[in-house]
Every structure is written in structure tokens, then in C-alpha cells.
Amino acid sequence: MLKAKYLVSILLFITLSAGLYSLSLAQSSSNEDLEKAPDFEVTTLEGNSVSLEKSVEENKPMVVYFTASWCPTCAKNWPVFSELYPEYRDDLNFISISIDPTDTKEVISNLVEEEDITYPSTWGHPNIMVDFGVQAQATTVGINRDGYIEFVKSNTALSKEEYQALFDQLVSAS
Questions:
Q1: Are residue 92 and residue 6 in the same domain, yes or no?
Q2: Confidence (pLDDT) at 16
Q3: How many Å apart are CA 34 and CA 140, to the nearest integer?
Q4: Contact in structure between 66 and 108 (CB atoms under 8 Å)
Q5: What is the pTM assigned to this prediction?
Q6: Domain total for the chain?
Q7: For each successive 10 residues of the chain (174 residues), what is the average pLDDT?
Q8: Do 86 and 6 reside in the same domain of the chain?
Q9: DSSP state, 148?
């Protein structure tokens, strides 16, 4: 009887240990199939520094939106992002980066004012677009808390509900 209890205890310990080990492997390998996002740092129109490194340090996912002042598809996304940004500002970092080097600080400042854009924005940085491998404006990149790219929506305008689903996915991922 004592031998049976001892065997059950050992089997229980082995089972629990294997389960915990499997769980830790699953958590550590969750980024294996994802591409690491390139680090970048920009200054917003308000003078704040935004970087992927800082977002990872804060343990917050990030959304990077590549835009251009002349882009009609981008213009469809601006009001959607402006509507959603207040809802997500505490849960994820957001930056809109112009890909056009002629989008100067003044051009983007005027655009933000004219279009009533509420989220952090910066002027022409085509080099960041190249670093990300992005090939078109109106591209949204979702980056998880560990700095890995979870999704890329290229050259498209999405609905509020579609962006909410993507943002919720980023925020709820551990």
C-alpha cells in the first residue's frame, strides 16, 4: 500500500513537471514563427520620442502605421485610427510614420490639424519603411510585447471593427 502511494506520488510529480515544462516551451516558442521587428526611434509632432525598444520595455504592443499625406487609402484610415486611439492608448503604443521624405514636419502638422488626427504622428521617414520591408503606404504593422510582428495589413483601409479585432488580438496576446 505504501509502495502504491509512493508510485502515485512519483507519477503525479512527473506528470505535473512535464506539463509545466510543455507550457514553458509553448510560451517561449510562441515567437518562433514570427519576424523580429526592426528597432526604430522617431520624434512625434509633440516632441515625444517613440521607439520599439521603449515599447518592449513598457511591455506594451505597438501599432506602426505607414502613411503619406497624399494617399487616398490612408485618408480612409485616419478617422478610424483617430476614433480608436483614445480607447487603446493605455494598452498599446501607436505611431503613424510618413513614408514620403517630402512630408515635412510642417506638412504633417497641417495634415494632423486639417484631418483632426488624434494619434502620435511623425514626418517623412522612408528608411523605417524600408527597414520593415513595407512596400506601400497605408500599411499597418502590429508588433507584440516582445517586439515580433504579429500582422501586416498592406496598402488597405479597414473598418473600425476590423482594426478593433486586430488591436484586441495584440493587447490580449501575452
A1: no
A2: 41
A3: 16
A4: no
A5: 0.81
A6: 2
A7: 52 42 42 93 97 96 98 97 97 96 97 97 95 96 96 96 96 82
A8: no
A9: B
- Work out whether strand 93-98 and strand 121-122 pair parallel, antiparallel, or are unpaired: parallel
Whole-number pLDDT of residue 5 = 53
CATH of the domain at 147: 3.40.30.10
Q: Give the residue numbers spanning the domain of 88.
A: 41-172
pLDDT at 151: 96
* CA–CA gap between residue 144 and residue 169 (Å, rounded): 9
**Position of cell 505597438?**
62
Nearest to 111 by CA among 137, 144, 78: 78
DSSP state, residue 158? -
Q: Please, what is the Cα angle at 34 between 32 and 35, to 5 degrees?
A: 115
Cα angle, residue 54 at apex, residues 50 and 55 outer, rounded to 5°: 85
Per-position DSSP letters for 24-83, written without gaps between them: HHHHHTTTTTSPBPPP-EEE-TTS-EEEHHHHHHTT--EEEEEE-TT-HHHHHHHHHHHH
d(CA 157, CA 126): 20
